[in-house]
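Reviewers asked in the last cycle whether our approach scales beyond single polypeptides. To address this, we selected a multi-component target totalling 233 residues and predicted its structure end to end. The input consisted of the following lines:
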Amino acid sequence: MNNYQYLEENLAEIRAGIGEVCQRVGRDASEITLVSVTKTVDEDIINRSIELGVTDVGENKPQEIVRKFPSITEGVNWHMIGHLQSNKVKKIIDKVSLIHSVDRVSVVDEIEKRAAQIDRVVDILLQVNIGDEVQKSGADVENVKSLLKYVEGCPHIRVLGLMCIAPYLYDPEEVRPYFKQMKSIFDEIKRENYSNSEMKILSMGMTHDYKVAIEEGATMIRVGTGIYGSRNY
Ligand SMILES: *Cc1c(COP(=O)(O)O)cnc(C)c1O
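The resulting structure, written as C-alpha cells, was:
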C-alpha cells in the first residue's frame, strides 16, 4: 500500500520554499495562503493531504467540485480557480469559499442572484488577463474597474482581490514583470476604494513560479504539481 510519503515530502518542500522566500524579502509566511490545486487528484489522496495540514483546495471545474465534495474531509476551504460559466454558478455557490475567476458581468449577475437566494455574501476575486492575448479568461484593467463599479450595486458579493494566471515562461524570472504589473494594479485599485471591495488577496503564482510571485506581493499561491505530482488527464 502506498502511504503517500511523497505528499508529506512535497508539502514540506513547498512550505520550506514559502518560508525561505518570505524570510529573504522580509514578509511573514503567515501572510501567504497555500491553495493546493487538486484537479484530477483522487479523493483519498486529497484527504491524506488534508491530514497533513492542507486547509485550502482549488479546483478548476465545477463538475469536479460537485463530484468530490461529499467525499472530502469537512472544513477544508474550496476555491474555484478555473474558467466559470454562468450556468455552472448555482452548482458550486454553496460549496466554495472563494471564486477566483470572475471576469464578466454575466457571471457577476449570476453570483449575485444565487448568493441572494441562499442569503449569503459570496467572496470573489476578479481575474486579470495579464499580458497574454491568447488566453481567453480574465478581464483587462479597464474591464476590471468597470466590474468593481458594477459590484458596488451587488449586496451579496464581496470582492477580496485579484487573481491572474501568468503566461507560462520557461524561466520564472521572465514572469516577474507580469507579477509586478499585477501588484501595481492591485495597489491602484486599493487606493480607489470601491465599495463591496477590499483589496486583501492577490492570487498569483503556481508550482513553477510561486517564489517569484511571493517576492512580488502574492498573498495566495496555487500549487498543484508541486504537491501532488504530475497530473494524469
Ligand atoms: C492547474 C492550475 C494551477 C496549478 O498549477 P501547477 O503548475 O500544477 O502548480 C494553478 N492555477 C490554476 C488556475 C490552475 O488551473
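Residues 137 and 202 are 17 Å apart (CA to CA). We regard this as preliminary and will revisit it once experimental data from Aim 1 are available.
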